[in-house]
Amino acid sequence: MPDAIADAKRALRADLRERRQQRSEASRAEDAAGLKAQLDALVERTGARSVSCFLSTPTEPGTHDFIRDAVARGIRVLLPITRSDGLMDWAVADPEGEIAEGLYGVPEPVGEVLSPLAVNDVDLLIVPAAAVDRTGMRLGWGRGYFDKTIGSMQHCPPVYAVVFDAEILDDVPRDVHDQPVSGVVTPTQTLPLAASRR
């Protein structure tokens, strides 16, 4: 049975990845502006003074403008740095700081490295996803970094996954280690998902 779940996840990820690659440059710019507005409103609504976020790839809803503006407003933003042992270190976002390619080709900050425990101090987690279903289950990209992080936090703050509108699905394949999220943010809406465990 686990093989069937893994196969279903692989097939869905491949389909979602292909759809993302077909988005036009104009759509991507519009999506980034919409996402920034949604994330700004979420931070204000939650009163978060410290958040974790991620540096988006060119095919993801864009987070770079949100991060730059949040830092300018005095919000502490932690960005993940992947490690080969499956854990994530963190770095405080610096709009003037360097960005390099991480372990899996995703953009990551260059700077002072904080331990995996640093994320325990944030008020809000903003995480990438391939898709999220209406019960709050998140389908990641298959490496388990965010599931491990969320699952290991003693006092986990609200967790919001970032996807495009068409990636909010009725159901996603799930395994025992998969972690639910509190809500989902797209370029046009923010949906709390009350049915999730967080």
UniProtKB/TrEMBL annotation:
Catalytic activity: (6S)-5-formyl-5,6,7,8-tetrahydrofolate + ATP = (6R)-5,10-methenyltetrahydrofolate + ADP + phosphate
NCBIfam families linked: MTHFS_bact (TIGR02727)
Annotated source species: Microbacterium flavum
EC number: 6.3.3.2
Protein family according to the UniProt entry: Belongs to the 5-formyltetrahydrofolate cyclo-ligase family.
Protein name from the UniProt record: 5-formyltetrahydrofolate cyclo-ligase
GO molecular function annotations of the record: 5-formyltetrahydrofolate cyclo-ligase activity
SUPFAM superfamilies the record matches: NagB/RpiA/CoA transferase-like
Highest classification ranks of the organism: Bacteria, Bacillati, Actinomycetota, Actinomycetes, Micrococcales
Cofactor needs: Mg(2+)
Domain of life: Bacteria
